[in-house]
Amino acid sequence: MHPFFNPNRPTSGDVEQSLKELKANDLPWKTGKVLAYVYEPDPEAYALIQKAYMMFLTENGLDPTAFSSLLKMEQEVIDIAINLLGGNEQSAGNFTFGGTESIILAVKAARDYAKEKYPHIQQPNIVMPVTTHAAFFKACHYLSVDPKVIEVNDKTFTPDVRDYENAIDENTILLVGSAPSYAHGVIDPIEDIAALARSKNILFHVDACVGGMYLPFAKNLGYDIPKFDFSIEGVTSMSMDFHKYGYTAKGASCVLYKDRELRKYQIYTCSEWSGYSIVNATVLSSKTGGSLAACWANLQFLGATGYEKIVEQTQSAKMRIVDAITSIPSLSLLGNPVMNMVAFASDTIDLFALTGMMKERGWYIQLQFKHGISPTNIHLSINQANVPHIQQFIDDLKSCVLELERSGSTAAIPFPEKLLASLTPEMVNQLKGSLGVGDGEAPDDLTMVNRILDASPPHIRDMILKEFVNGMFR
Ligand SMILES: Cc1ncc(COP(=O)(O)O)c(C=O)c1O
């Protein structure tokens, strides 16, 4: 019986102990050897973030008039974001709980703006490259907007503005570009897309979820960073996360508009029920003030000079990793990564095996499946906690690759796509056991699952993922 139903209650100490035990199998991010998911602040900032979060844990962001502290902090955080991203007095924005929420809101604003301004549009669409973050596909799915996906170049992994032009039709409400895209860390030709957006009078969103809190500092340090923000005429909205390279607690992002007028279409109000008046600037209604306070505190504490220092360190770590990758003949760097996110592929080495070998040495690196012109690859997000371990990383990477080369490893042998294309949910459920995926638990070793997912066409991949995750959660 679960302790919840047992009248003999555990002490708070017992519960705390259980929590510690629950963490035992989590990714060991404190080692500094995890190159995804976690953006670890330095110890002093971390202590401050924890304190700030707890101070506002219970305050509710539901009503901006009830907790003036939250309103003030949000205004200041957004002011910093607007200033970093080339906005002006007319610009506006909101603090959200993640990049996905920011993106859903930007798409909702574009959809509702179009509804009012262009009532002929029955079925709106968004033109975006295949490298655009999945959050835009999700926003389209939730908001009944069609994604019109354009290809990218197979060397640069960036789109051609002519493909945007060809894809635009009378129902296009928004263009999207990334600065940079997550998967390959490359910046789309934002100035060209903005010029097109202007000429066609279409809204243009730049997703700077990862770049917003990084590129401005890299630019200040003298790195060659193209213009990507509101300083370009035609960029109408942007998203930027604090919980990535702002190194604050999760639940911290923002959506910004060049012009406050557009933000109006993001806001949801409901006066048609029998309860209190609802006016939500963002998706969530009741929400902790904790992540906002932690974000505000961390921005105050680090300041522009603090972020610049971090970017200086991660940029040089990135360059060392890029040099190492390009010096290993069996690996190939994908695209031209401008910041600290890189991806590499291999024609000769089994990347699934490489990921497993690196895991045995304590490294968590992220596999990305092949899609269209993007081959199966490994993604690295290099954050400040990884910096002291970079030489070890390079040494381990080189020695794992060498070991694979010596063992005669070849690129992963693909599963027959035809066979996978005929999988049904029932077959997937039968397969689960033999892949070590038990209901109610996350699998220990994802190698075989990953091989199957990589080889599957997108609709089968989606189906397998849904079956697995539906089984994983209670
Ligand atoms: C470019 C980009 N946009 C959007 C997102 C979605 O952000 P979140 O996971 O905070 O919802 C991510 C996440 O990695 C991203 O890299």
Describe the structure.
Helix 7 (about 190-200) links the parallel strand 4 (about 170-180) and strand 5 (about 205). Among the domains are: about 55-295, Type I PLP-dependent aspartate aminotransferase-like (Major domain) (Aspartate Aminotransferase, domain 2); about 415-470. The longest helix is centred in the middle third of the chain and has 38 residues, at about 290-325. It starts with 11 loop residues before the first helix and ends with a helix. It has helices at about 10-20, 45-55, 70-85, 100-115, 135-145, 160-165, 190-200, 215-220, 260-265, 290-325, 350-360, 390-405, 415-420, 425-435, 445-455, 460-470, and strands at about 90-95, 125-130, 145-150, 170-180, 205, 235-240, 255, 270, 280, 330-335, 340-345, 365-370, 375-380. The model has no long low-confidence stretch (mean pLDDT about 95). The protein contains 16 helices and 13 strands. The strands form 3 sheets. It has a 7-stranded mixed beta sheet, sandwiched between helices. A 4-stranded antiparallel beta sheet has the order 10-11-13-12, with helices on one face. A two-stranded antiparallel sheet has the order 8-9. With about 475 residues, the chain is an alpha/beta fold. It binds pyridoxal-5'-phosphate (PLP). The site of pyridoxal-5'-phosphate (PLP) has 12 residues, from helix 4. The site of pyridoxal-5'-phosphate has 12 residues, from helix 4.
